[in-house]
Design a protein that fits this description.
Strand content: 25-35%
Number of helices: 12
Oligomer: single chain
Helix content: 25-40%
Number of strands: 20
Mean pLDDT: 94
Number of domains: 2
Shape: globular
CATH topology of the largest domain: Dihydrodipicolinate Reductase, domain 2
CATH superfamily of the largest domain: Dihydrodipicolinate Reductase, domain 2
CATH architecture of the largest domain: 2-Layer Sandwich
Low-confidence stretches: none
Radius of gyration: 20 Å
Amino acid sequence: MKVIIVGYGAVGSVLTKLLAKEETIEKIFCVDLKFFEKIKNKKIDFKILNILEKKKFIEYLNKIRPDVVINTSLPRFNGHIMECCIEAKVNYMDTASFWDLDKNPRAKIPYKMEQLDYNEKFIKNNIMGLIESGVAPGLDNLLAAECASQLDEVDYIKIRMVEDTGSKEIFFSWNKDWLLDEIGSKPIIYQNGKFLFVENFGAEEEYDFPKPIGKKKTYYFCQDEVGSIPGYIKTKKLDVKIHDNNIDVSKLLLALNLVSDKKINVDGVEVKPIRVLSKILPDSVPGEEKKFPKSIFAIAVEAIGKKNNKKKSVKYSVVFPRQEVIGKLGLGANFISYPTALSLSLFVLILNKIKKSGVFPPEALNDEIRKEFIKNLKKYCKLHIQIK
């Protein structure tokens, strides 16, 4: 399999190293505007290229003829890359939607999953777009489908996450602009056939995660999963809540209106608070993750409903290694980029099993593919299954 990875950053660089170890991966082509690191590996090529120069990018795709193009850069480039994949008739993957407000007054969901607009063109060209295939969204979407498949009726799907650096010091484990945007975005839930806005960091809930995490307070957070899962899994309710040990910082930024993208006048100059904040906050530098050895990420997906007319719940929880363990893998990864890149790599390895075209998220995958993915996942992290 030949793979093109667009964006050699926190996730793309780790994904490259993971895929390079796989026998089924013949060649990996990394595309970016610049490279701070280049690995000496016969499987890996590096290409400096501006993907926004559409003609040049399409020519590159036609030259390489990859099996799949993976966008690990910002989601704002999803649409552009997908258009190029259509022209070159190449399969596509990404980690998240741009997730902007839908201006269509008749829209069923407040946010727009822009990748789905390309579904018919992907079908027409007999290519596949596996979207939102990182860890969250991605892994949790797949686990939601797996949990739901074990019930006759689903009343409630809970997705709960923990991000804990073990420190009060600020550390950006991924793109700070995207994180600030998520803090300021209004979360949505799905309930009784409707998508509803809820308060940022609202509906505090103490949720029980597997050891070594235990009970943690979780809050509403804006996540893509809510927008796609109800389209593939019939449920009465769905929501996503997260625990962040530095949640008070996020709450303060929100309260002070510092994550707003609406222009304000400051001494006669119009500025967007979120852009100013992004300039002020320091960038995380490679190696900084070593200062947070106890950092950990975990995800729990629970489907509550009925089986044989009896109440039943199915819960799958994944606890990823702490930073001190990830650091020993030699990937230059942190406690978020590793789970994201790992999940992406596992999706790449099952691509040849997906026998359909079009654009779809992981919850659309069939039972056999889901089970193979989960089997492979168990090799790298702790999976807890609870049925009651």
